[in-house]
Amino acid sequence: xxxxxxxxxxxxxxxxxxxxxxxxxxxxxxxxxxxxxxxxxxxxxxxxxxxxxxxxxxxxxxxxxxxxxxxxxxxxxxxxxxxxxxxxxxxxxxxxxxxxxxxxxxxxxxxxxxxxxxxxxxxxxxxxxxxxxxxxxxxxxxxxxxxxxxxxxxxxxxxxxxxxxxxxxxxxxxxxxxxxxxxxxxxxxxxxxxxxxxxxxxxxxxxxxxxxxxxxxxxxxxxxxxxxxxxxxxxxxxxxxxxxxxxxxxxxxxxxxxxxxxxxxxxxxxxxxxxxxxxxxxxxxxxxxxxxxxxxxxxxxxxxxxx
Length: 307
Prior knowledge:
Layout: H1 15-27, E1 31-32, H2 33-36, H3 42-47, E2 52-55, H4 82-93, E3 97-102, H5 113-126, E4 131-135, H6 143-151, E5 156-158, H7 168-171, H8 177-190, E6 195-202, H9 208-220, E7 225-230, H10 247-260, E8 264-267, H11 279-286, E9 296-297, E10 303-304
Parallel strand pairs: 2-3, 3-4, 4-5, 5-6, 6-7, 7-8
Antiparallel strand pairs: 1-2, 9-10
Helix pairs in contact: 4-5, 5-6, 6-8, 9-10
């Protein structure tokens, strides 16, 4: 049995506050990636009144061997009431910053882009002061679908690279490293005022140089924010941990990332892509970006007006 090092132990949460968040989620029949993916920070985040909402789930059309979200080849149809229920949860929790993510929905022509659009707009109506971060799948490379999400104007668009190129076939067999980089580059080209973000997990057998090269690749496509965290095996049927990375190594990667020009690098054993995401709001206040008044150009060449 592999024993987790001391630095991976988390404090027990204050269950009174956690229970209130859970009550809201159950009342509104919402899913969170905090619960579905067995995140180790669930106690801290729920105790702080934050959650990363999981839409179009809880089942995913991909079966990545590192992920604890259930696989289902033909998930349920989209729920038209989900955007309003999500917006009501944001209002009740009085969130300053919200993260909305999804399972992969490769069964849908737009990969779920339309549902992201509806959720963003519903949150804007219910809680105008809340900043919105979306953590999206790769949409199978459908850049018209990406443009739909960008037109809804989330402040942050996050898409996780997850791992280094060499490990993609084993870790993310239905993903494509180049496609993930292209998604981030397309986001920067279509809506440069939106902050782009990505995350990688370590401890799966990658080298220091491979991590640094991936960081360089992300900066080359103008990725603004990077998260790096330790991979933890959810169950015995998932990929095993190859290495427990020390806090000192995470610090070294953070320093290196900052030298590359990332606006923000969050690197620690317990970092996840949406962990302490509210810090992004502070970044936006320090380094504001002016939204352009022109339309977002679709990759097809058409231009749609912004609302």
